Amino acid sequence: MTVQILRKKFTVGQYHQMIESGILTDRDRVELLQGEIIEMSPIGMQHAACVDRLNELLVRELVGRAIVRVQNPIQLSTRSEPQPDFAILQRRPDFYANGHPQPQDVFALIEVSDTTIEFDRTVKVPIYAKDNIAEVWIVDLNAEAVQIYREPSEAGYQQLQTFRRGQAIAFQAFTDIQFTVDQLLG
Fold it and tell me: Counting Cβ atoms within 10 Å, is residue 118 exposed (0-12), middle (13-18) or buried (19+)?
């Protein structure tokens, strides 16, 4: 006899109710992906340093043109509310106080990866493509490279480019602002 294991899938609304009722707290490093509550990995020193470096670079270059959201939620659908390391967002006077950004608000997302590289590539990036996020960067600390995903579709991103030290990159929404891979990696 085969036993089928059933999983309870949650909506963003149910997820928020768990937060409001104290079932999930600030100490729980979790995100909602396709209805499943996923525990996030602890943040190591190299990851934290890269996030701080990127924060300084991105804010300096994008001030007045975009909101740089650091490790905060975006709502992709009724079943996904990830917390990417960075969301480069359309400017809004309320800074999204009345609701988390949604796909149409996002210029690009950035994931800084070391221990989570396979999860980011095989789970998060396909979700971002399916939910029509125009551009995703993975800063791969282990390989010292930046992968840029563009042209989202239901089947995944149609364009993937890998950039290494010595090369320059730019967001497709801000082609006049270039970064070097060396700047991002330190």
Answer: exposed
